[in-house]
Design goal:
Number of domains: 2
Order of helices and strands: EHEHHEHEEHEEEHEHHEEHHEEHEEEEEH
CATH class of the largest domain: Alpha Beta
Shape: globular
Distance between the termini: 39 Å
Strand content: 25-35%
């Protein structure tokens, strides 16, 4: 199917703070186990689930690779997470540590340049996020195959999620004309526009219109096509990477079977000079022709503690060591024992700092955890970024 897959595993998401922080971002947290679904992805972290998706859609017979792009501070987490894979699977993985976080456009530009240098030929590429729940795997594979066909025809393919409500936390894709040819194929549309995260009123109008979809943040394209799109629409992003020399064997090291591009000469300077911008803004919003595959798979962002607690409670994932008396309907995520007395409908997340990260506690009433972002902003305003 695809020649290569890029997994964006950087970032320091704070919507699940304090469990998710710069030292242990959401993608490395245990994913709520979907054991109630017979075709569910094997239990592990969000990142593990992304790798397993990638391995299923990358050409196994050829030289298909899974390129993981993440920060230097995440390398240990990735090495540990990849210990579960066989030598044959590890041979297909490579990790590129970013010198600094510069958003998704530089991450993709870096990885595509690497692909172009290492292969020297046109490649079909899929870009995956590393912090979502996607099930069942079989439907994802079908939709990925549809996107691959358009990528091979020099189009940018994106995946749109049918909205389940007027969500203001996602970008939207406005679908145009239906272009899929048969009823058996995943529904695929031209893209009329991309829209930034809307206010409530605008989100409600999108829902009423019926042709707006959540932007999943996943893309498919051919390597030479997207490099040309970078040169046309975002030269300030791609230009610094064009000055890099192709890495040689001395640039790599191997840790526990995982190949890491550890010393790529001048990569740090390229990241200093590139523009910090999202792929959506730099490329997708300016790129035509673009098509949207309407997702047949289930997609969950798990963007709040309320959502995480709902999934974890529903499917019985492992909770913290909890002692309680007269306490009801509470969810606890903690790395130390917690006791509850006479409380109800709380979400409690505790990180003691015993593993080297910041020590912090969140106590929230169920239904209020979207305001974690407000707490994060207060922490930043007090210049206590070490807590994040």
């Amino acid at each position: 199917m695809f020649n290569d897959c890029i997994i964006m595993a950087g970032g320091s998401g704070t919507r699940l703070w304090p469990a998710s922080n710069s030292m242990m971002p959401k993608q490395f947290l245990p994913m709520p186990s979907l054991s109630a679904e017979p075709e569910a992805i094997a239990a592990g972290s969000f990142f593990n689930a992304a790798v397993e998706r990638a391995l299923k859609v990358v050409d196994e017979e050829g030289d298909g690779r899974v390129i993981i792009v993440a920060g230097h501070s995440h390398v240990a987490h990735i090495v540990r997470a990849c210990e579960r894979y066989s030598p044959k699977e590890l041979k297909r993985l490579v990790l590129i540590p970013e010198p600094e976080a510069r958003n998704t456009a530089p991450a993709i530009a870096c990885a595509v340049n690497y692909i172009d240098w290492m292969s020297g030929e046109e490649r079909k590429v899929l870009v995956l996020t590393s912090d979502h729940i996607i099930t069942p795997l079989e439907k994802f594979i079908v939709d990925a195959a549809a996107a691959e066909a358009f990528a091979a025809a020099d189009k940018l393919a994106v995946f749109g999620i049918a909205p389940r409500g007027p969500e203001t936390g996602y970008g939207y894709i406005e679908a145009g004309t239906l272009v899929s040819r048969t009823a058996e194929e995943p529904q695929t549309f031209t893209v009329s526009s991309f829209r930034e995260k809307p206010n409530r009123q605008t989100a409600e109008s999108f829902l009423e219109a019926g042709n707006f979809f959540w932007n999943s943040g996943m893309f498919a394209f051919s390597s030479r096509f997207i490099l040309e799109e970078f040169r046309r629409s975002a030269p300030e992003v791609i230009r610094p990477f064009g000055k890099l020399r192709a890495p040689d064997e001395r640039s790599f090291k191997t840790e526990r079977g995982l190949r890491i591009l550890w010393k790529w000469l001048d990569l740090e300077e390229a990241y200093e000079k590139t523009a910090a911008v999202s792929f959506d803004y730099a490329i997708a919003e300016k790129c035509f022709p673009t098509v949207m595959v309407k997702a047949g798979f289930n997609w969950v962002d798990v963007g709040s503690w309320d959502e995480y607690a709902l999934l974890a409670g529903r499917y019985g994932t492992h909770h913290a060591e909890v002692y309680h008396h007269n306490a009801r309907e509470c969810f606890v995520d903690s790395d130390i024992p917690v006791a509850l007395i006479g409380v109800e409908d709380l979400i409690i997340s505790v990180r003691s700092g015993k593993n080297g990260g910041p020590g912090s506690v969140l106590i929230a009433k169920k239904g209020e955890t979207q305001h974690v972002r407000d707490i994060v902003e207060q922490i930043r305003a007090k210049d206590r970024n070490e807590l994040l």
